[in-house]
Amino acid sequence: MSISLLDFSKKLSSELLDLYPETEAQSLAAWLIEHHFGLKRIDGPTLLEEEKVPEKLQEDLARLKSGEPIQYILGKGPFYGREFLVTSATLIPRNETEELVHLIIKENKAANLRILDIGTGTGCIPISLALEMNSPDVYALDISEPALAIARKNAEVLGANVRFELCDILTQTPTVGKLDILVSNPPYVLESDKSQMHQNVLAHEPWTALFVTDEDPLIFYRVIAEKGRKILKPGGKLYFEIHESKGELVHALLASTGYVDVRILQDLNGKDRMCAAIWG
Question: What is the model's pTM?
Answer without folding.
Answer: 0.89
